[in-house]
Write a structure and sequence with these properties.
Low-confidence stretches: 387-394
Largest sheet: 7 strands, mixed
Distance between the termini: 30 Å
Radius of gyration: 23 Å
Shape: globular
């Protein structure tokens, strides 16, 4: 009886986990593994089995679906001139059910920034055993560094000779950069085949890998379509949660005898803390929320990756749907995937590169630009509306480089608009609010243009679609282009950051325990003090594995 109704709930649970995204799925599995502790996983969304969630090439098709995502919207961003729509999954599996599938741990130097921020125990070397525990690499990899027996199947395509993806790799090499055989072993500059959460042509989500295999356990319950409005706190300790049914609005207190663990993600975990009276006392009092713990750092330090597109017209024979001809190409690609789990919809991003620019001295002379190569279109139908971005354009074959910076210098915030738990938080990432982000993006676009100018990619491409011939490669023109075309990459960290008690912006200690509140943890991307130079699913699952070990050890003393 894993999925339960309110009538089937126990009178209390040892552990209550809020949010069934990547971290929540890992924790539900690990904390219920001994069979000795009762675990309840609560998710505001439901379980969705539509086929697009399993087809890798359809990853962007559902981003605007209000049934699967929280409908968040930033205020107008002063440095980009538009509002942005952060995408956060609202379903079992979270955003990993429909993200772009990339599996990159992050560079060792990115984790060094965590330790420099005063967070002990989170160096890359100390995190590596947990990455290995998660990974089930389906390709030949160094067994001392990579995992092969973990539940999360990871694949990498290398059978792309003669494709535009291979020509991209060749173009980066033509510029004098090396090929990196395994981006999760060796960092530095170069081109690489991107690893993905795909097995036999089908998406693998954390729910598939961790949650569903554990559902036969009698001590694990999952309550879906239920929001958590508040953490219940008595005498400085979390004692449970106040929940609300999405279907009928009914309220119910659910006690937790050991811990409440928040896994709502960078944008929603601070919201729940604030609604529970944990945050900046002045802000809480202004909204009429009783203060349980004055922690000014809750919701601060928001870091958000953005991307800037560089797009070229592709010669017809190299287009993503070229082998089908022009007639109903997308339908034919869907059909091939349904029948064989192959074809252009069995993957999304195959290749990428990390490079240094003239600004890399600010990064310790390390790569400061990352690009993902997409062998189909990545273009805005309407640059002012992020719901109208698309990944496919069948009228004109296109290929794209999504340019992003390795590090984000701009800092934003997540705050409450009012004390109503039904009101979405105010997410203000301040995209490109720091001039260093703009400068790095400009250099990245220049490098992307240089990659497309190499003879290898010239074999497959025609004219530049974006930025286009009207945008010169000078600082003013490219700065304006980057600000206008910047799009959220939907990768966020920092709003409940780990840190020492002396750090006024720290929300948790190094094990995710909320400062000054007993029995309460945060265990998701929000506790990362600095954003990584990579997609974040691998990081989130590693964090959950590492913190689950600490929870289990503490409760067996």
């Amino acid at each position: 009886m894993p999925f339960v109704t309110r009538d089937q709930l126990l009178s209390s649970y040892d552990y209550v986990i809020v949010g069934a995204g990547p971290s929540g799925c890992v924790l539900a599995n690990r904390l219920s593994g001994s069979g000795h502790h009762s675990v309840l996983l609560i998710e505001a969304g439901g379980v969705d089995e539509r086929w697009e969630l399993h087809m890798p090439g359809a990853c962007g098709e559902l981003w605007a679906d209000p049934r699967l995502t929280w409908r968040l919207l930033t205020p107008p961003q002063p440095h980009t001139g538009k509002c942005h729509g952060p995408i956060q999954g609202r379903m079992v599996g979270g955003s990993a059910q429909f993200n772009t599938l990339g599996w990159i741990r992050g560079s060792p130097h990115a984790y060094q920034r965590w330790t420099k921020a005063g967070v002990e125990g989170w160096s890359y070397e100390e995190c590596m055993p947990y990455f290995k525990r998660v990974e089930g690499c389906t390709f030949k990899a160094d067994k001392y560094v990579r995992g092969s027996a973990g539940p999360m199947k990871i694949s990498r395509r290398e059978d792309l000779q003669g494709t535009v993806d291979q020509l991209f790799i060749d173009s980066v090499k033509q510029m004098g950069f090396p090929f990196i055989p395994d981006i999760n072993i060796k960092g530095g500059e170069g081109a690489f085949w991107q690893e993905a959460m795909i097995h036999n042509g089908t998406r693998v989500s954390p729910a598939d890998a961790y949650l569903y295999p554990a559902l036969q356990r009698e001590n694990l319950h999952v309550l879906i379509n239920t929001k958590v409005n508040k953490i219940l706190i008595e005498n400085g300790c979390a004692t449970g949660v106040l929940t609300q049914s999405v279907s009928d609005g009914g309220l119910l207190d659910i006690p937790a005898t050991r811990e409440v663990i928040i896994c709502g993600g960078t944008l929603l975990s601070p919201r729940l803390l604030l609604l529970s009276g944990i945050g900046d006392a002045g802000q809480l009092e202004s909204l009429g929320i009783p203060v349980s713990r004055n922690l000014p750092g809750v919701g601060r330090n928001l870091q958000a990756h953005f991307i800037v597109p560089v797009v070229y017209h592709t010669k017809p024979q190299f287009g993503g749907y070229a082998k089908y001809g022009a007639l109903d190409a997308k339908a034919q690609a869907n059909r091939e995937w349904f029948l064989t789990r192959t074809g252009p919809h069995s993957f999304f991003v195959n290749a990428g590169t990390k490079l240094r620019t003239e600004n890399s001295q600010d990064e310790g002379d390390l790569p400061n630009i990352k690009m993902q190569f997409v062998s189909r279109a990545f273009v805005p139908a309407d640059p002012t509306n992020e719901d109208k971005w698309t990944h496919t354009n069948l009228e004109a074959p296109l290929c794209s480089l999504a340019v992003t910076t390795e590090r984000v210098y701009s800092r934003g915030s997540v705050t409450l608009q009012d004390a109503n738990p039904d009101t979405n938080p105010l997410v203000d990432p301040q995209i490109m609010g720091d001039d260093r982000d703009v400068a790095n993006a400009v250099q990245g676009v220049k490098l992307a243009r240089e990659i497309f100018s190499q003879s290898s990619l010239q074999e497959a491409t025609e004219s530049e679609f974006l930025p286009g011939a009207s945008v010169a490669s000078n600082e003013p023109d490219l700065s304006e282009y980057c600000r206008t075309m910047a799009k959220l990459h939907h990768l966020f960290t920092g709003t409940c950051k780990m840190g020492s008690y002396a750090d006024m912006d720290a929300v948790t200690d190094r094990w995710g325990r909320v400062w000054g509140v007993g029995g309460l943890r945060v265990a998701d991307s929000s506790i990362a003090p600095e954003i990584l130079d990579s997609p974040l699913t691998a990081m989130c699952m590693m964090i959950a594995e590492k913190i689950s070990d600490n929870i289990i050890a503490e409760n067996t003393k």
